[in-house]
Amino acid sequence: MEVRVAAEGEIPEGGVKIVQSGSLFIGVYFIDGVYYAIEDRCSHDDGPLCEGLREGFEIECPRHGAHFDLRSGEALSLPATEGVDTFPVTVRDGDVFVEA
Ligand code: FES
């Protein structure tokens, strides 16, 4: 299902916007001019991943501190041992969409 995220330019450089697609919550980041979408739910214990601190392409779960690569969803540190989903983002006619 395709969900409209924002107008182009609405998410500032380095920012994130959380959107809902069905029962999924997804964080859409805009970094160095590129959009990335990752599930806003930590694989360890369902923490709100996209509310965590970001450094480069790494985000830290605010609940217990696991790190993930927001480009791939890969878990980079314990206590998470499994990755989370990522989703394709497209820009069309001035709007940003995520396919989830
Ligand atoms: S819920 Fe994310 S590290 Fe535990």
Task: Please summarize what this structure is.
With 100 residues, this protein is an all-beta fold. 0% of the residues lie in helices and 45% in strands. The termini are close together.
What does this structure look like?
The chain contains no helices and ten strands. It has strands at 2-7, 16-21, 24-31, 34-39, 54-55, 58-60, 67-69, 86-87, 89-92, 95-99. The mean pLDDT is 97. The chain is globular. The protein has 100 residues and is mainly β. The strands form three sheets. Strands 2-3-4-8 form a four-stranded antiparallel β-sheet, with no helix packed on it. A three-stranded antiparallel β-sheet has the order 1-10-9, with no helix packed on it. Bound molecules: FE2/S2 (inorganic) cluster.
Q: Could you name the key traits of this structure?
A:
mainly beta; binds FE2/S2 (inorganic) cluster; single chain; 10 strands; 0% helix; four-stranded antiparallel β-sheet; 100 residues; 45% strand; globular; three-stranded antiparallel β-sheet
Report the biggest beta sheet as strand number plus sense, adding barrel if it closes: 4 strands, antiparallel
Poorly predicted parts: none
Say what oligomer this is: single chain
State the shape. globular
Total E-strand runs: 10
